[in-house]
Amino acid sequence: MKFLRRLYDWVLRWADTPYGLPALFLLAFAESSFFPIPPDVLLLALTLGKPSGAFRFATIASAGSVLGGAVGYAIGWGFWDVLGAFFYQYVPMFSAEGFVRVQELFSQYNFWVVFTAGFTPIPYKIITIGAGVFQINFGMFMLASLLSRSLRFFLLALLVFLWGQPVRRFVETYFNYLTFALMILCIGGFLLVSHFT
Fold this sequence. Notes:
DedA_domain, 197 residues, globular, mainly alpha, membrane, 0% strand
């Protein structure tokens, strides 16, 4: 936990440098396949520092994350036989048992597995690499990634743009609950629309 806390603080420090935007893109890119700290941390800090740039920052985070997800897919699709042991040993949250569960989820829900992981605190990297390992349709994977990651980052940027510091305290305290509640609302909306169409 101390290591993750130091990593968290290191990520936040990038917001106070001229390299905040490239760092945001690279963090979002890396988090999609192996890095443990989500880009929301830096996105929040940058947006609080410059609210007028909120949606530009969300665009950068979304682009980095979706491209990183494509790389995660490529790792699973083409290099898992070589890199699998490394991920199991050195990348937090990867396990052989977890991958069996991911395969079961993909066989039942496909699009929704990617969308849910992209929008909620569920580790997105497990799903991006798993999608490649289990050869999920790449177009569907990219669409679900684009929708979910953009929705997540633009929602955070909008909240900070509108309400600033109070939102930061609220989001940091209740982030997991908020994303799961919004996820349920989104799925409910899609199911309702599909039921009547």
